[in-house]
Design goal:
Blueprint: E1 5-10, H1 14-26, E2 31-34, H2 42-47, E3 53-54, E4 74-75, H3 76-89, E5 93-95, E6 100-106, E7 109-114, E8 117-126, E9 149-150, E10 161-165, H4 169-178, E11 183-188, H5 198-209, E12 213-217, E13 221-227, E14 230-235, E15 240-243, E16 245-248, H6 256-261, E17 285-287, H7 299-315
Parallel strand pairs: 1-2, 1-8, 2-5, 8-17, 9-16, 10-11, 10-16, 11-12
Antiparallel strand pairs: 3-4, 6-7, 7-8, 13-14, 14-15
Helix pairs in contact: 1-7, 4-5
The chain binds flavin-adenine dinucleotide.
Amino acid sequence: MHDVYDLIIIGGGPGGIGAVVEAKELGLEKVLLIEKTENHSHTIRKFYKDKKRVDKDWQGQAVELEGNVAFVDGTKESTLDYFDNLLDDELIDSRFNCEVQKVQKVDDIFNVETNCGTYRSKNVIVSIGRMGKPNKPHYKIPASLRSQVSYNLDKCGNGENILVVGGGDSAVEYACELSDTNEVTLNYRRDDLSRPNPTNQAMIYKYAEDERVCLKLGIDIESVESEHGLLRMNFADGTHELYDRAIYAIGGTTPKDFLKACGITLDELGEPIFDENYESEQKGLYIAGDIAFASGGSIAIALNHGYRIVTHILSKK
Ligand SMILES: Cc1cc2nc3c(=O)[nH]c(=O)nc-3n(C[C@H](O)[C@H](O)[C@H](O)COP(=O)(O)OP(=O)(O)OC[C@H]3O[C@@H](n4cnc5c(N)ncnc54)[C@H](O)[C@@H]3O)c2cc1C
């Protein structure tokens, strides 16, 4: 264990992994990765369905990788294997099952307070993603229906009538996957599905044409209530439908309280303020990955953040 690290990275998702690998490759010696769950990449493990196709150009965003991580299109499993190998090969100093609660700067050194002790570092990267708290609908979900509402595929069975809500890649992938063994409707408030990447757009429209997924586009849900134990979804045009289950795939929230507890200033929209080097107003304190994007990032974008931040830290030495 080091007395004072050069860099502590909070969060072992793609942003954190990119940063730790670049730090080792580019020559930062004293580096620590802290992850709150028992393994890296919690978002990928929890929200991606098994065998999911993982696209480098996610949500149609074409990204050129800048650093030393050669991430390519693959599957959930191949991506996790690749990250396993990266972390094993680099002999990374890491703490798992260790949750950061607060970061405080004292005399130019950051104290990173966790449930397993306090670590000290000259620089800190916060890369905790947004999926710790998935976005929830603006209307209330009755308590009796909560077990029928989810934000990933964990609780889904077979033979259910399921409503998937959302208009991005995750919603489309969830709907198509579930349609093999369930009756599925995809609801999105806009008229067309322009956000998903071209592969997913082609897939969802083909599924709709083949009547494997029913599309309910251009209409919002106003409320949900229980009808004989089913979800009665009340739509804005006055119609309603009954479903066994609803899955909301509508992104994640900014972890505002956590960012504030780290000393990161937020703008009027509650998003973190940082410069072109991803450095916050506290010098030496950086933001990487999805939390640097209100509208959703990607694995490749998160990896590039790690590269740019480490390059910037080294340029100050
Ligand atoms: C269903 C779905 C499908 C997707 N498919 C693709 C795809 O095909 N291609 C693609 O490029 N992108 C895809 N994405 C987006 C991609 O997963 C994210 O852009 C990426 O994971 C962001 O990485 P990150 O490191 O910023 O955050 P995350 O991956 O969310 O990682 C954050 C990590 O920080 C940890 N953490 C949180 N709080 C703390 C704390 N207090 N202390 C310590 N650790 C903490 C978490 O446990 C987690 O491991 C998908 C997203 C979803 C939800």
